Every structure is written in C-alpha cells, then in structure tokens.
Amino acid sequence: MVKREFSNKVVVVTGAASGIGLAVARRFARAGAICAMLDMDRVRLERCEHEFGDAGHRVMALRCDVSRRGDCEAAMAAVIARFGGVDVLFNNAGITQRSAFVETRIEVYEQVMAVNFFGALYCTKAAIHSLILRRGLIIANESIAGLAPLLGRTGYAASKHAMHGLFTSLRSEVRDKGVHIMVVCPGFIKTNLQDRALGGDGTVTRHPQSRIGRQDTPACAAEAIFNAAAREKDLLVLTTMGKIGYWVSRLAPGYYERRMASQFKAELEH
Ligand code: NAI
Fold this sequence. Notes:
alpha/beta
C-alpha cells in the first residue's frame, strides 16, 4: 500500500554523484521530486547536475564533505532557503575499509566513522526540524555489516552498527511526530565503493575483494528503495545473498560467523 507520494517533494541525497545515491536521486527525480544532490566529488557532481537539468528535472547540486559538520549545516540551510524545506533525507554517503584489525591504524577508524556515522548524524541534525515540520522521511543506507559481523571490515561494520543504533532509536522518538525512518541494508551492489576502500595504513587498499553471490545494479537497488520508501517500510534488506545473510546471522549467528569468515579471510592473505 502506497503511503507516500514524492512528486514536488524535496529529496536530499548525500553521496549523490555515484552508485546507489545517484541511482536513487534519478528514481526520485523521475517521480517528480526536487533533488538536492550532495557530494564531495565536485567533478562528478557537476556532470550529474547537467544530466538532471537536461532531463528537465529540478535539481540543486551542492559540494559537501559530510564528515565536516559545517558543510552539512551549510548545505541543508541552502536547500531549505531555496526550496523551503526537506521532505526526504537519504543518508547514503559512505566509504569502506578492507584490512585486518591488527594492521589498521586508529586514523582509519576515525575517518570511516567521520563519513559514515558522523556524516549521517550531522545531516540529520541539520534537517530534523524541517523534517518534523513536513512529516518527512529519513532513509539510512547502512549495510548487512550494520547487522552482522564482517571479517576485515571492523571499522566499516562499527560505523554501520553505530548508524543502526542511531536511526532505530531516533525512529522511536519521531514516529509519533509523523517522521518515518527506513533503514536499508544492501548486500553487494556494483558501484565504485570497493575501488576506493581504505587499507590499514589509510591509503586505498590493493587487497582483492571477496564477494559472495551476484551483485545487483544500483538502478535495481534504487527501484527497491523507492518502492519501500513509498510504503514506509522500517527495514529493507537488498540482494538475495543479503537476505540469506540477514536471516542466517539472526537464526544461527555462530554458523554465520564461521561461514562468513571462511569466505572472506583469503582477501587479507595477499
Ligand atoms: P560509491 O563509492 O559509488 O558512492 C559513494 C558516494 O559517496 C561517492 O559519490 C562519493 O564521492 C561520496 N562520498 C564519499 N565520502 C564522502 C564525503 N565525505 N562527503 C560527501 N560525499 C562522500 O558507493 P556506493 O556503493 O554507492 O555507496 C553508497 C552507500 O551504500 C555507502 O554508505 C555504502 O556503505 C552503502 N553500501 C554499499 C554497498 C555496495 O555493495 N556497494 C553494500 C552495502 C552498503
């Protein structure tokens, strides 16, 4: 049952210049939404702004590093000044890490938390009053690693678990104010995320990536996210392997850990 329509709604997407964020912005724009696209990658962002403008969509592209609180506050203020408010906030900007805990510098954890967790926190804080006024929707793009362990991703999993705690708790505070929060936990989606994964020393890692099952496309993920947002789902788990992983990790956590570890440990041995 459709509960929300997005035509003429103001949709803010972080990490909108690539992958899932870009595909979700395209999907909402096709439904008639006004898209505010936030990303730190200025070049890709400009390309997206042209693409959306050429297609006749209403769009505002803002360079924003979500790990900087001032950037997030300024971006949200600019969106509210131009369009009057925020109806949907898609907290999506993210980075990942692939490295063994013993070889990973503390700075890598700080960086991953700064983008994935604090970026989502800063944007949500800056938009929450407008979202409450407009009985809006927050979508948190987490990961299966926000619900279950993942070898070689201690920093990434910690940041996504932190997001999960933040957004599921916030949901209990704002639901009766008319704000809905949906958590999205994708399995593997074919994007640029892994090409930029940090290694233990903070540079882009050369560890090959282990993967289980087929990767879905960003467009396919975006369609599912859009439909679930319209129906106000609380939790959306994406990809077949993501769904299997979700249920196995809940029903048989010990078995999940052993299987997952045997699938992933090879990537740290190179
Ligand atoms: P992507 O790398 O294609 O897109 C991420 C976007 O975020 C890029 O445009 C990048 O410039 C932007 N970004 C990175 N740091 C930023 C910062 N500090 N400030 C502003 N923008 C920043 O990757 P993808 O896969 O589309 O990732 C989107 C989200 O989906 C991430 O939060 C990721 O953790 C999550 N996710 C992705 C999965 C996958 O298999 N691709 C699986 C599970 C979750």
